[in-house]
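Usage

Read records sequentially. Each one opens with the input sequence:
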Amino acid sequence: MRNRRRTAIAFIGLIAVLAGQPGSAAASAPTPATCFPTTLQLPDNFLPEGITIGRAPFAFFGSRADGSIYRANLVTGEGKVFSRGPGTPSVGLKIDERARLFVAGGSGGDGRVVHAVTGEILASYKFVQAPPTFVNDVVITPNAVWFTDSNNPALYKLPLGRNGKLPAPDKFVRLPLTGAFVQGPGTNANGIVRTPDGRALLVVQSNTGLLFRVNPATGVTTQVDLGGEILTNGDGLLLRDRTLYVVQNRLNLVAAFTLNSAGTSGRLIKKVTDPRFDVPTTVASFGDRLYLPNARFRTPPAPPETTFTAVAIPRFAG
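and closes with the structure output:
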C-alpha cells in the first residue's frame, strides 16, 4: 500500500509541476479544435530517435545529435528541451512511475537516469569503455531495467532495489546473448520489451529481421515464430497486452502481431504506413493513438534548418 501511495504521489506531482510550465495544458489553454494535434513539431536539427510516454499526456524524445531531451505536451503540441545532453546520443528511453527517464546512450556506451520534470541527471552507468558499442533501447521491468547494444551480443541490466532504488554506478550486470541469436554485421539487437506474461524479454535484430525471446536469468535466446514474417529494419517495439507493435524504420511501416502469453509465437494482424512517415524509429502510445518520431535517416548531413516531427496515428490493434 505504501508503494502505491508513493507512485500515486509521484504521478500527481509530475502533473502538478508540469501544469504551470510552458508547453503545458494549463499554461496554453488550447481550444477543443487544437487539442491533441496529430503532428508534433520538434526542434530544428534535433535528430530524434527515441520516444516514451507515461500516464501523463507528455512525450519525451531523445536527440541522437547531442543527447538532449525534449518534452512535448500532447494536448497542445508545445514543448521544450528541458535536459541538455552530454554531447553523445540519447536513443531509446522509457519513463517509470517515479518520473525517472532511463536513457540509452548510443555510441557513448552508457545509460543514464534523468528526472522527467527537472532534467537533473540522477545516475549514469558506463556499460562499455571503448568502441564498438551502440546502446540502443531500454525496457523497465518490476525489478530491473534492461538495455540493448546493437554492436555487442549482450544486454545490460540495472537491478532495482527496494522502492525502485537505483544501483551504484558499477553495479550493473552484463548478460551475454547466447542460443539462437547470432551477431552479424550492421545493426543487431535493437528494440526490447517484456513478453506478455512478464517472464522473459523480446528483442528484435534489425539486420536479420528476426525476433528473439530472451531468458533474463541466462541470456539464452530462442527465435519467436512469427509465421514466416520477417521484420526487415525492425527498430522500436511496443507491447500492449498481447499486441506487439514493431516499427520497420526505412520501410516506413508499423506491424502489429498478436503474441501468445509466453512470447514464443505470434501472428501478423496488420501493417500500416502513413504519408507523414519519414523513417520513424520507434513508437509509444497514449489513449487511442500511437506516436512515432521521424528520424529522417535519409537526410545527411542535416543543416540547421532541417525540420523534424513526430506523428500520431490511430492505434489500429490491441
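Summary fields computed downstream for this record:
- The chain has one domain: 2-27+35-314.
- Residues 51 and 61 are 5 Å apart (CA to CA).
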